[in-house]
């Protein structure tokens, strides 16, 4: 699902929150891919209590972060003026959200824990809390070896078909805007998916999806699909069938992160909650 001739546009300030776990390198690499444009900024944040334990402890923590960043992303990104490394103490989720607001982040990139004995990703409480409190789009990187973005002089995405899972009962303008922005990095039309109940008028649902699509300018247009079934299972099945490397969700305040959590468990796709 490589989009060899496509590159990512400038996305503003991308904040990458890592914890030094085994998945930190893939989270860093993905975030750096999103921020590779010369007009974008990358802020790498590690929340570490050593930041409040004196100068020598903070210096050690900063040195460790530099070493991890240098080992995880290409030098032209690690050493450029537009990349900042921060070590801060405090409540992990609260510090991540406060830092993202402070630097006016346009995208926040976080990870999940490594997969457990059943081969499923473990969705940590920090990621869930970040998804619940974020006011900007959040990209959740799955704990797999699959690259969704390759970093060269520019970022080459491997998104394949971008699946935009629409809940027609909530506002979806920002979700559609994010999808349209990232569509420039794919050779495919956006796939707008609505998982319907048994009594849904499919034609009416497609009309509403078409109206949402008319409000944005996606790079290659859209196609629409209305399917009945359980929400997460249906989205995951469609994503696997079309070879999607990127699923874009809307924000559901009643169950923040629940759908993203299950999709990360069931697929190897990058999940963006907009």
Written account of the structure:
This protein has 274 residues and is an alpha/beta fold. It has 2 domains: 13-149, Rossmann fold (3-Layer(aba) Sandwich); 159-273, Rossmann fold (3-Layer(aba) Sandwich), CATH 3.40.50.620. It is built from 9 helices and 14 strands. The strands form 3 sheets. A 10-stranded mixed beta sheet has the order 3-2-1-4-7-14-13-10-11-12, with helices on both faces. Strand 1 (13-18), helix 1 and strand 2 form a beta-alpha-beta unit. Helix 1 crosses helix 2. 47% of the residues are buried. The model is unreliable at 115-122 (pLDDT under 50).
Quick overview of this protein structure:
By secondary structure, this protein is of the alpha/beta class. Helix content is 36%, strand content 24%.
Number of domains: 2
- Strand % is 15-25%
CATH class call of the largest domain: Alpha Beta
Low-pLDDT segments: 115-122
Mean pLDDT: 89
CATH topology of the largest domain: Rossmann fold
Question: Order of strands side by side in the largest beta sheet?
Answer: 3-2-1-4-7-14-13-10-11-12
Shape call: globular
Gyration radius, to the nearest Å?
Answer: 18 Å
Secondary structure: helix percent? 25-40%
CATH architecture of the largest domain: 3-Layer(aba) Sandwich
First CA to last CA: what distance? 23 Å
């Amino acid at each position: 699902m490589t989009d060899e001739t496509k590159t990512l546009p400038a996305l503003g300030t991308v904040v990458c929150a890592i914890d030094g776990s085994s998945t930190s390198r893939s989270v860093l690499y993905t975030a750096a891919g999103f921020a590779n444009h010369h007009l974008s900024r990358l802020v790498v944040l590690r929340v570490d209590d050593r930041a409040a334990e004196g100068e020598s402890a903070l210096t050690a923590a900063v040195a460790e972060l530099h070493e991890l960043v240098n080992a995880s992303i290409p030098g032209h990104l690690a050493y450029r003026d537009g990349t900042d490394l921060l070590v801060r103490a405090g409540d992990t989720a609260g510090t991540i959200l406060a830092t993202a607001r402070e630097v006016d982040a346009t995208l926040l990139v976080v990870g999940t824990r490594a997969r457990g004995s059943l081969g499923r990703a473990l969705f940590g409480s920090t990621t869930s809390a970040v998804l619940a409190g974020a006011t900007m789009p959040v990209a959740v990187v799955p704990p797999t070896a699959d690259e969704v973005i390759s970093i060269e002089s520019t970022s080459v995405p491997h998104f394949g078909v971008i699946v935009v899972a629409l809940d027609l009962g909530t506002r979806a303008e920002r979700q559609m805007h994010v999808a349209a922005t990232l569509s420039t990095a794919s050779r495919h039309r956006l796939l707008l998916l609505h998982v319907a109940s048994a009594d849904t008028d499919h034609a009416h649902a497609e009309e509403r999806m078409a109206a949402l699509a008319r409000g944005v300018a996606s790079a290659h247009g859209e196609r629409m699909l209305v399917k009945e079934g359980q929400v997460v299972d249906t989205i995951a099945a469609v994503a696997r069938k079309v070879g999607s490397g990127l699923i874009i969700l809307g924000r559901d305040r009643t169950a923040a992160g629940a759908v993203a959590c299950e999709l990360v468990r069931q697929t190897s796709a990058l999940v963006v909650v907009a």
